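Duplicate of #3305? Posting structure anyway:
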């Protein structure tokens, strides 16, 4: 978590999965959460958070990072950010409300 003048700026939560298998016996990092305060977006904070995760993955000889973002309208800006950072959309989620 990053704070500036006692204001929330950003946070990231990720987990290394060196023994879990995503595909072909490949270890991976899963980003569970990544957020940047709206007032701080566009200043490189999100890119720095992603780079820190990538650096940690490389340090542990892990070559894949996965995350879920969703396909709702309000996620489109985040999705464009991830795509610009080199992430490729790969899955579709489903839910059923009862």
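Output from current build:
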């Amino acid at each position: 978590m990053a704070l500036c003048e006692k204001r929330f700026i950003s946070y990231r939560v990720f987990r290394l999965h060196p023994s879990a298998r995503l595909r072909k016996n490949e270890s991976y990092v899963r980003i569970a959460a990544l957020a940047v305060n709206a007032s701080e977006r566009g200043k490189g904070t999100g890119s720095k958070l992603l780079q820190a995760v990538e650096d940690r993955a490389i340090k542990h000889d892990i070559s894949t990072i996965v995350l879920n973002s969703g396909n709702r309208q309000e996620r489109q800006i985040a999705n464009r950010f991830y795509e610009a950072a080199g992430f490729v959309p790969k899955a579709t989620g489903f839910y059923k409300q009862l």
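Confirmed duplicate; merging threads. Strands lie at 2-4, 7-17, 28-36, 65-67. The radius of gyration is 15 Å.
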